Amino acid sequence: MANENDAANDDMTPAMRLMVLQSKHRGLDQKINELQLQPYHNQLLIQRLKKEKLRLRDAIERTKDEMIPDLNA
C-alpha cells in the first residue's frame, strides 16, 4: 500500500525519514496519554491512534532496516 507522503519523501534521506517518523510516533504517544487522562475519553479515537502508532513503528523499523547494509550481499 503506497503512502500518500511517498512523493514528498523522495528527496529525504533515510535518516531524515527516520527522524520524521520517530517524531510523529512520539507525538501520537503524547496524544494518547493525554486522552487517557481525561475522565471520559474517546476509546474509539484512542484505539485508532494506537493503530496509527503501530503503523508508524513498523515504518520506523523498515527505515532502520534500509539504513543497515545487507551483510549477505
Description:
The chain has 73 residues and is mainly alpha-helical. It is built from three helices and no strands. The chain has one domain (14-66). The protein has helices at residues 6-9, 14-37, 43-67. The longest helix has 25 residues, at 43-67. The radius of gyration is 15 Å and the shape is elongated. The chain starts with 5 loop residues before the first helix and ends in a 6-residue tail after the last helix.
The ordered H/E elements are HHH
Total E-strand runs = 0
Helix content: over 70%
Q: What Rg do the Cα atoms give?
A: 15 Å
Q: What gap, in angstroms, lies between the N and C termini?
A: 27 Å
Task: Provide a short characterization of the protein structure.
With 73 residues, this protein is mainly alpha-helical. Helix content is 73%, strand content 0%.
Provide tags for this entry.
single chain, about 70 residues, mainly alpha
Write the layout of secondary structure elements.
Blueprint lengths: L5 H4 L4 H24 L5 H25 L6
Helix pairs in contact: 2-3
